[in-house]
Design goal:
Layout (H helix, E strand, L loop, with lengths): L1 H12 L26 H17 L2 H29 L1 H8 L5 H17 L6 H12 L1
Helix pairs in contact: 1-2, 2-3, 3-4
């Protein structure tokens, strides 16, 4: 529920609008959770519905949660993203442009470090070779 309230707050403060379709934000919201996920509101709603289904032990609520989770990506792909592209042209292009995130930078530097260290002699190789030469005598 906190995630959902955070999204509502960001829509109101940064976007100057609401989650309601009759009062959409006037500015593209790219702060807070929207820096990490393109649709944190849908994630929050899905988590609330799953929590209710588990809490009430309701198969009906679980089926509803599943239907909503299937409907969200369809709504995003066929209505929301085209509307955002038309309404917030330049901002939307920058927001959706591929960018290297921090975790990608960290993993790529880790890969470079491990690949360069693999070319070095392994730590135990000297002792292994001395063991094999001593046992072959």
């Amino acid at each position: 529920m906190c995630l959902l309230l955070w999204c509502v707050r960001d829509f109101y403060l940064a976007g100057k609008g609401t989650l309601a379709p009759w009062d959409p934000p006037r500015h593209l919201v790219v702060v807070g959770l929207y820096r990490v996920s393109r649709n944190p509101t849908y994630l929050a709603v899905s988590l609330v519905l799953i929590g209710w289904a588990i809490g009430y032990r309701s198969g009906t609520l679980a089926a509803y949660a599943l239907a909503v989770m299937v409907a969200f990506p369809l709504r995003v792909a066929f209505w929301e993203e085209p509307w955002l592209a038309r309404t917030h042209q330049e901002q939307w292009t920058r927001y959706t442009a591929p960018k290297q995130t921090d975790w990608r930078r960290r993993t790529s530097s880790f890969r470079r470090h491990t690949s360069s260290s693999q070319s070095r002699t392994p730590y135990f190789s000297a002792s292994r070779s001395s063991l094999t030469t001593s046992s072959s005598r």
